[in-house]
Design brief:
Helix content is 72%, strand content 0%. By secondary structure, the chain is mostly helical. The protein is flat.
Length: 144
């Protein structure tokens, strides 16, 4: 029993550290962008604003992804408290330790995760539309 408690504490510490590492990255992005915006707030030429917004959008997208990962760490910590950590939510088998080391907040074993991703990919797939005529032929006709 003491070993189980010790391992639970080690996993809890690992999950909290992973969560904190991601939170530090989010804070870096936020503070860098706030500083950059303060420094450049007097320059409102349209081209500059557009050029600066591209990296900002990319950084905001990254920060959004990091927030999702933080939420996944929080969910993993909650599963740990309920003694459900390391158990696949789909097939209820134990998730291999190697997978938990690679993706500590995972909810699924590799087999179930692959199955879920394949179904999602199939739902996103849009088959090509075959039109009864070619646009190239229509362009040629318009040129005549």
């Amino acid at each position: 029993m003491e070993i189980a408690l010790y391992l639970k504490e080690k996993v809890r510490a690992m999950l909290r550290q992973g969560r904190n590492d991601i939170l530090i990255e989010v804070n870096k992005i936020s503070s860098e962008e706030s500083r950059r915006l303060r420094e450049n707030s007097t320059d409102f030429r349209r081209g500059d604003i557009i050029d600066r917004s591209m990296p900002l959008n990319a950084k905001l997208s990254l920060a959004e992804h990091y927030c999702l990962v933080i939420r996944q760490y929080d969910e993993a910590l909650a599963r740990l408290e309920r003694d459900e950590y390391g158990i696949c939510e789909k097939c209820y088998d134990n998730i291999p330790l190697g997978r938990l080391k690679q993706v500590p907040f995972t909810k699924y074993c590799l087999k179930c995760q692959t199955s879920i991703e394949l179904k999602e990919k199939q739902l996103r797939y849009i088959p090509p539309i075959h039109l009864p005529f070619s646009f190239e032929k229509e362009k040629r006709r318009a040129m005549i």
